[in-house]
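Tutorial handout. Part one gives the primary structure; part two gives the three-dimensional structure as tokens.
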Amino acid sequence: MFILGINAFHGGASAAILKDGQLLAAVEDERFRRQKYWAGFPSESIKFCLEQAGISAYDLDHVAISRDPSAHLAQKALFALRKRPSFAAIRDRVANMGAVKDVKGIMCQALGLEASAFKAEFHRVEHHRAHMASAFFVSPFQDAAVLSIDGMGDFVSTMVGSGTDNKLNVDDQILFPHSLGIFFTALTQWLGFPNYGDEGKVQGLAPYGEPRYLDEMHKMVRLLPNGGFELDLKYFVHHAQGVDMTWDDGSPTIGTIYSPEVVKLLGEPRAYRGEYTQHHRDVAASMQVMLEEAEFHIVRDAYKRTGKKALCLAGGVALNSSFNGKILPDTEFEDIFIQPASGDAGTSLGAAFYVYHQVLGHPRSFEMKHSYTGPAYSNAQIEATLKERGLSYQTLDDDALPKETAALIAEVNVVGWFQGAAEWGPRALGNRSIVADPRRADMKEILNARIKHREEFRPFAPSLLAERTGDYFEQSYPDPFMVKVYKVREEKRGEIPAVTHVDGTGRLQTVERTVNERYWDLINAFGERSGTPVVLNTSFNDNEPIVCNPDEAINCFERTHMDAIVLGNFLMKK
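Part two.
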């Protein structure tokens, strides 16, 4: 049985495919189209998934999309009667819903299919149920509390429930227009970060400030009993006049969400690419603290509701790694799982598994232990690209490769590392990475200026041998997907300054040899040479989606100030 899941007409358009409950492939269209968070119909991702499965679209048994326009119709109607949103907002929403309802027709048109021969059954899975399924059904837990928290999807911003075996149960939800994601996005815009997905930048800026404006944040977000919350809507416009959004065939855009009342409360917004003042840093810190207060409120209530010891977390807000790292030490939960594409791209994965388990009733048999579900290139394919471009390179055997690369890193070289299948989700996890020496205090500035061309305050991540996690961090709970921030042990901060943020934390990736042997061997070889089993890891890109194929990796290498690149078993140096 083949099930295709898709996230379409929304940021992070993506596809995932299952065969008899096993994940064969999952990828985002941005990797093929080279536009970040590409929105539209994910035809390129679908083509890749079908190719990986070795089938045509006619062989699919089920297709699931992670949207259901028919969900919560009564609440939508009541809201429209009470708030009377603008005609433009209603028009745009109706057009988007129409596309979601005609997925079969659009898919046939995009892939050149004959509708009469296309036998697959189509399913619309409510957005947050797809989020929840993406976390629980691929987790190692048979019993867990499950949370989805994001901006908005199918009129819901937050959903709370539990999972047992192959079933999800929803206990509660928070409806439009109240949303922690919208709160955080609105103030991200006020801080001068207008692009879709810029919320992560605020996480990097927040540790440079103090939460001096928490009283102001409490005016915008009010916590309610039983894990609830509400926004003071006078500070926002999304509920009244709607928001200008583009979701079709390009990088998504979102118009201004905050109202003039925010300017009265916090002052004039920072201009795009304007100067950062301490005021901006303090607002960023206050936003982060407010978000964490609200998330703790929800998470602790979920524990009371369910009594479960494990937590599965999904939704765009689940990418707030600063909060994620505090859940185990500061709540009663003992285990946690956050899959690597926990934002909207991950709903394609969730929609497919929701149909397989919740709708069709099949037992669980898959656990997501790694994120390497995208395109892969053999040594033969890589070498053909190198020869076609007339490039000089060195061939290394499997034993020499990690040692030679570790030596380059130890000699203060910045190295592009292109191996195996591309990662699923927004983090480079050792297959499409740029790696460097974490012991160099100036390496963060070197990378931000020479390679990444991004804000100087943004930190870089440490990848370390999983078995050494407790030696360097105050928590030893594994995090293979780089979705949690832990405190670096105080005595180790001077050893790895390039990956230790200003507040003494690091967004780590724990690497197990059984999961990614080649990357583990590289880190181990660097540890044997330097005494530090940690490398600095950042995504292989330069203000673009993470590189996908060898040509893109070489292009990025040539236009930046990387010193060397390793593609498969081939090494090039500048």
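Part three, for discussion. Residues 58 and 195 are 38 Å apart (CA to CA). The chain has a mean pLDDT of 94.
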